[in-house]
Amino acid sequence: MTVICNQCGTQFEGKFCPNCGTKAPETPTLLATPAQADEATTKTTVLMQPPVSVSSAEEPFKTPVMKEKKPFYRQLWFIVIAAVAAIAIVFGVVNAISQAGKGQFVWADTVLGKRLPEPPSKYGEIHDDGPERLSVDVKDISKKQYAQYAEDVSGRGYTVDVESSDSSYSGYDKEGYKVDMYYMESAKELNIVLEKPMDMSDITWPTGQAGNQVPAPKSLYGRIEYDNDDSISVYIGKTPKADYNEYVQAVMNGGMNVDYSKDVKSYRAKNAAGWEASIDYEGNSIMSIRISKSSDSSSSSESSDSSESSDSSSSSDSSDSSSSSSTPDTNGIRPEFKTAMDNYEDFMNKYVDFMKTYNGSDMNMVAKYSELMQQYAETQKSFDAWEGNMNDAETQYYLQVQTRINAKLQTVS
């Protein structure tokens, strides 16, 4: 009989283990036969199977039901991607329509554009594009972009007599070209105006009634806009700021000092004879001088003329009056038209000067502002009355006045 050694596990027959010499156990461990091993495995397998309940055994076998799979276009990931794509398309179309409505320009195609850096946006509108003036409204510009563009403009040499704020920039270059820029943050729009130097030459100071109201300036290099007996408009070059200040003082000393208003770059006053003077330092050693009959004086004169005419025959008076009011001067401009334009420009100059120092918390200034608005309504009415009733010379002068006014308004930030 084969037994197993309890000490070393060797199989042997006999009383002692041939390997370690241990005595055979009194109750030997017998090796299982192949048949016995198979039976033990079967029993073990049966014991490892989970118990089957009676109810489960009686239930019929059910085939598993597979859940129906949704098509890809109904799945969440596809819906999300499609929604994002749709939103992007809508925004793209809206933006394209918006930009199309703004219009585009090609900066390189403008006549004077090469004298300035190209703006950061190509959207906007060109109002003037000629050898003497460029006027452009540029849209879609942030305040940061404007600030950088103003630096770029300065870097191109527009550093003479500079006036700047966080929303405006004005200056000349060494050749005399002048740039004016005004940024409107609410509209994200930048207005750019570039003008060529004014043509000037040696002149003779006007000697009519208007010219005799003030002394002739030191420099007689300039340009006469118009010269009439009752009004003149002259630009004088080669006049640095110090010479401008001296001239203003000479004008004051000469009697043009009634109801005067004076600041660093402008002077407004009347004299006892009823004449008005507007003298401005334009920059780049240029000053402008305008002399005219005051509106009060004109009214008195008209009243006097009317009174005198009432003593003569009505037909003769009507003929004389018509001839006087409709006869243009040598420049083709009617005196009454020029007076209306000059009065309007003088008022707007006063308005700009006032607004530069306006403080809404100062009640005196608030009252003055209200007074100015009343004057504005009256002056504007007189100014607008001529629109549509001007000859070519008057239309040109009208545009010159309006251009100067717009340029000054842009300096009010």
UniProtKB/TrEMBL annotation:
InterPro entries noted in UniProt: DUF6591
Keyword Ion transport listed: no
Segments traversing the membrane: 76-97
Low complexity biased stretches: 294-326
Residue numbers spanned by region Disordered: 293-337
Keywords, in A-Z order: Membrane, Transmembrane, Transmembrane helix
Segments forming domain DUF6591: 104-199, 200-412
Identification of the protein by name: Zinc ribbon domain-containing protein
Source organism per UniProt: Alloscardovia theropitheci
Higher taxonomy: Bacteria, Bacillati, Actinomycetota, Actinomycetes, Bifidobacteriales
